[in-house]
Amino acid sequence: MKTILSIHRVALVALALSTASVTATFAQTTTTPSTTAPTCSGGGWHHHHESVLTAAEKTQLQKDREAALAANGTLQSQKAALKQQFETLKSEGSSATPAQWQALHQQKFAFHKSLKEAILLIDPSAQAIFTKLEAAHQGCHHSST
After folding, report:
1. What's the CA gap between 115 and 117, in Å, rounded?
2. Mean pLDDT score of the chain, rounded to an integer?
3. Of 23, 47, 103, 135, which has the most beta carbons under 10 Å away?
């Protein structure tokens, strides 16, 4: 019995040490800023679109988004509806069809186009930010079809 407990203890200690080693390796990993703009990998939902922007540009774009949404009730409603539709499809899991996801993608694309237009009406200088984003993601195939 004592041997079995010792084996379990040794296994737990080994597991803890290996986890600590991996954690230490990740903690020591340093990231170096890229000198080239990241390119889009294509397909799926993208969450890295703003990675090419400076902190000041991100702040300006967020402020402009909030102002555009506050000034346009229709955009606010569309945003809420898209979020609800996404949550519904996500909760359906594998029973959600590719056609439903594609329809949501098309609606999201149209919403972002309308939001961009609203932002530019409020702050025409934001065009420089949109140009930078578009240049960084020119390999992406985002279409409304």
Report:
1. 5
2. 75
3. 103
Q: Which two tokens stand for residue 124?
A: 């025409």
Rounded to whole angstroms, the Cα distance separating 14 from 8 reads 10
Long-range contacts of 109-116 (CB under 8 A, 24+ apart): 109/142, 109/143, 109/144, 110/144, 111/75, 111/78, 111/79, 111/82, 113/144, 114/75, 114/78, 115/65, 115/68, 115/69, 115/75
Encode pLDDT of 6-57 as tens digits. Answer: 445 544 444 444 434 433 433 443 444 444 444 444 444 444 556 889 999 9
Rounded to two decimals, what is the model's pTM?
0.62
Give the start-to-end residue ranges of the domains of the chain. Answer: 54-145
